[in-house]
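Database export, one record per block. Field names are fixed; values are copied verbatim from the stored entry.
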Amino acid sequence: MRRLIVLPLLLLVACATPQNNYDPLEAINRPVFAVNKAIDDTVLRPVATGYTRFVPPPLRKGVDNFFENIDDLFAIPAALLQGKATPASKSFGRILVNSTVGVGGLIDWASDLPIEKQENDFGQTLGVWGVPSGPFLMVPFYGPLTLRDSADPLVRLAWGPIDYIDDLSGQIAYYSVFIINARSQLLPLDAMLKEQADPYAFIRDSYLQRRWFKIHDGNPPHPLPMGDEEDELEIKPAARQSTAVNPQPMRSDNDAPEHDNKPAIAASTPTEATP
């Protein structure tokens, strides 16, 4: 789920690179990150902390299940567009079970069957199609994205549940709960982020590596080169050797980092590996 929060899903502990090939807009992104962090420190984190402290766990779980059920709905077309029939059918099964027996998605019975949750989004779809990731972006009031990955939140905004809520107060309530729930999921990562010498670089590199990993379904052909040209030259021979031994299907190697649609920016972005 593309969460409308300051901090990204840091699923990988990345070593931040001083200079990142996919971040030509760093001079703009860093000030935006500073503003986002200030908002998070003064508003989002305190509210999310109070939410986890005072709202009973079963109720919080139901709220999270509700939004995850919506996430499963968008995963179906994203998977189909990637030619993934099995993941699409599993997401459909989850929707069918949780939207009925699970009382509108509040109870996740599908995971107990078990019907595993599938991670597919429209940014990933474009990456599989070979669309370059474009530059890394730190979006105001949102967080990390790449130009390619922006397709997913835009699709959700255009055809999401908010489309069926006419009342402005209802729309505000929906997004408020969505943001607070999303931010509460990331509270355990705050301590790790505080330990980083450069939180911005850590978030950026973690995001790009995660997208690269995701676009290749957890089996990327080689590590994502994000630093100096010398580092990239070390990776290219290994990548060619790996391809010779175990050929990979054409996905988005000429594209920017996967899970965050890696930027394919002219000369500053390597063309052999785009997240």
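Remark 1: The first helix runs from residue 26 to 54.
Remark 2: The first strand starts at residue 136 and ends at 139.
End of record.
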